[in-house]
Amino acid sequence: MKILLVGGTGTIGKRIYWRLQNKHELVTVGTKSGDVHMDMTDPHSIEELFNSVGKIDALVVAAGGAPMASLKELTQEHFYEGIRSKMMGQINLALIGQRYINAGGSITLTSGILADDPIAMGVILSTVNGAVNGFVVGAAGELFRQGIRINVVSPGVVEDSMEAIGGYFPGHNPVPMERVVNAYVKSIEGVRTGEIIRVF
Ligand SMILES: NC(=O)c1ccc[n+]([C@@H]2O[C@H](COP(=O)([O-])OP(=O)(O)OC[C@H]3O[C@@H](n4cnc5c(N)ncnc54)[C@H](OP(=O)(O)O)[C@@H]3O)[C@@H](O)[C@H]2O)c1
């Protein structure tokens, strides 16, 4: 399979890369890192990416962020930052990408535990993660008619990120990378569609 892996140099993305590199043809994407450069907050940049890469069998997105701050500090612009990146960045990749995915192929997006299990300072991530989950549920039926599957992996805080962000997640259980990567493999190589694959 030819797999376009957006965020393929990141904490989660590089582990997906390591697992799949010997089995599939992988093209990694980041703003500065990876085989091809693209900014998912810019739809023109996404169009250029697909024009240059051409037809693929699977699109995987393990990228997209949102600001973390207390509710009292948040403004509309903070929300738009998360919407442009983690929400519409992933949705635009799927919307534009559907024209480039071969029949029998798949799209795998990434949301996160905060859609279901909130923390202080995480309201924007709770919001956009919920939206990404909703997009996948809503889009699966029409994509099915095109012969394309779509799922979203919703990880808890991964082991490798505990040092950096674990302090924001009191009482959360770090998730082994092996389990998180398995969820992406299940989405890419399996048969499920329209699923929110929770790995908490
Ligand atoms: N880590 C966790 O514990 C955890 C838990 C739940 C959910 N998630 C979600 O999983 C996803 C990946 O998280 P991560 O921790 O692996 O992130 P990360 O380590 O920060 O890596 C982010 C990756 O995305 C690329 N990237 C960043 N901004 C981009 C943009 N605007 N356009 C295209 N590529 C971009 C980066 O490459 P460049 O630097 O070259 O741009 C890098 O490859 C995120 O959506 C995150 O919210 C993570």
TrEMBL record:
Domain of life of the source: Bacteria
Keywords: Oxidoreductase
Presence of keyword Oxidoreductase: yes
InterPro entries: NAD(P)-bd_dom_sf, SDR_DHRS6-like, SDR_fam
Pfam entry (one): adh_short_C2
Family, as annotated: Belongs to the short-chain dehydrogenases/reductases (SDR) family.
Protein name as annotated: Short chain dehydrogenase
Organism the protein comes from: Pontibacter ruber
